[in-house]
Amino acid sequence: MNPEKIPRVPEILSIIILLTCFPSAAKAQENINEEIITAIAEEISSTEENGAGLESITDKIYELEINPVRVNMGNMKENGRLFFLSAYQIKALTDYVRQHGRIISLQEISAINGFDRETAAMIAPFITFGESPHGQTVHSRRLSQTLLNNFAVKPGYGERNSQGSQWKILTKYRMSAGSISAGLTAEKDAGEKYFSGNPPAPDFFSGYLGYNGKGILREVIAGDYSASFGMGAVINTGFRSGLSPALPGLLTPAGEIRPHTSAEENNFFRGIAFTLGKGRFESTLFSSLNSIDATLNNCNDSLNKTVKSLYTSGLHNTATSLLKKDLLREFTWGVTTSAYFRSFSIGVIFTQNVFSLTFSPDRSDPEDFHDFSGRSNSLAGLWYSAAAGRFIFSGEAATNPGLKPAITQSVSFVPGDRISFSFLYRFYSPEFISFHGKGMFSGSSPTNEEAMLGALKYEAARYLFISAGSEVRKHPWARYLTSFPSSSVQSEVSINYLPQRLNIEAVYRFRSSLYNLNIITGVPGIKEVITHSVSIRAKYMSSGSLSVAARSDLKTCSSGVAPGMMLGGELTWQPGVMPVRLWLRHSLFSTGGWDTRIYAFENDLLNSFSIPALSGKGSRTYVMVEWKPAKKVMMRIKYGVTSKIINTGKWEFSDELKLQMKVSL
To answer: How does pLDDT run across 248-270, given as a tens digit for each residue?
Structure first.
């Protein structure tokens, strides 16, 4: 199903880039979360996904710090919560505990097959050698609370028809005490009213109450929650590991429910979910009744209203967008059962969506021909994972009542300690519709795609890592900007050199895709658009308090526009005598147009992110200051400005101001 076409944030989760942060992470544990988030998000390419996916990653990383992984359980599912590790590393860590007993130090982890000193340092903040549900100490039973407030505004900018102020406001509250946890999230976007409706409430308001246990009742979440099962084709309302050709990420099935703590306003469940388990077997039952945004046909006919498409931007800052808010009621229920053995796991899922109104999409465009119609959608899936020596096989098969399938099959192979291979095949039928699925795919939705991907990672020498991969995709039906069956190819090579205090990374990317060749009359022709891009980044940590970084990007496109270029420098300073930290970056860019735009992830407020698209000619500068006046109080302020030369030769300036306060008790 195609939602209304809105701008999406291109992002790709290439976990290999995590290695670039290891030396600094080992020095300052309180900064490692932010370093990992930055590293994950910096690998920007043409893969498009809603920006809320990155917010889900930040939440999951901070959640790991609060509730670390119990590595001495020797449990594949528990260790799988370290989502940035490869399937082989997770298996190796699990097998080591089963064969040799308890792990007592990071040095011991660094000696396990597939691990090294840097990897052990990376996972240090997120693991515990204890075996209790929430870590090893008794302090986990005490009441722990966190309150976070974000405020952001673009001075001088505002929509003419905005309903509210131009401030974007986010509030998050979390508490935990032993096995009990709870949280609230409230958000308004720029131009929205903070309090609206009857009774008045924030534009988006979310909450949950959770329980984690060790008996038959393993987990319960009441309120708003996310879920992910198998390879994600049927259900995955969290983030997905992006398909970087150089390294496709974790290719093993998942099985979890977790609180919904991001500001994603549509793709989550609102109801109750609980997981029951005994021994190696586990079952999850979930139900949800949620109101979501939609665009209707026949808006003036109250008796014959139908749904044209879903409205997924979450913005309700104009009278038109407010009319789309919460127009559709969605009831979802499902059940999953899985079994976990030493070298084999398997699971099944069945789920159904029932809507309050009938979908009747506009199918005048070929790309919309297979859009969902009706009021009910049912899906069933089967997934597995099996380890045999140095091979790991994982896969999922899902279908709807019309037997239109979604199939995923992956193979991971580690022939030696220094090299690993990954292969992935996937096929999503054009008629396969999943409203809450985000499996292994490279476009904007998991449908109408057949692809084969191959990747390798090689430790060529001490501190030198090489990753490379290529993917070939075919689209059996028309898609956006393409009115015919098409194909695309993407390749990537990444070289990382990581000696002490110095990180150097060079990435080359190739993209080739087929699109419509627009002509005035007649049937559109076919054009091939090819892009090449090179990115070189270097970071030097002169001491524990100062680091400097430089970056250079070049991107070319066959569409005829001028190449895109960017040069930038960054400084991070944390003086030891003051509870202050400073970030400063200045970049110059020049691109021929949108086709050669360049993305650069920026440090931002906690639980937030910034990935500006640099297009045209100009500069981008920001400064951010963090102040910790007390041990459990943190404040940040960020000011950024983008300067561009417009067609008239004049300079155009757009700036933004962000404020944050976080209190932990």
So the answer is: 555 677 788 999 988 888 889 99
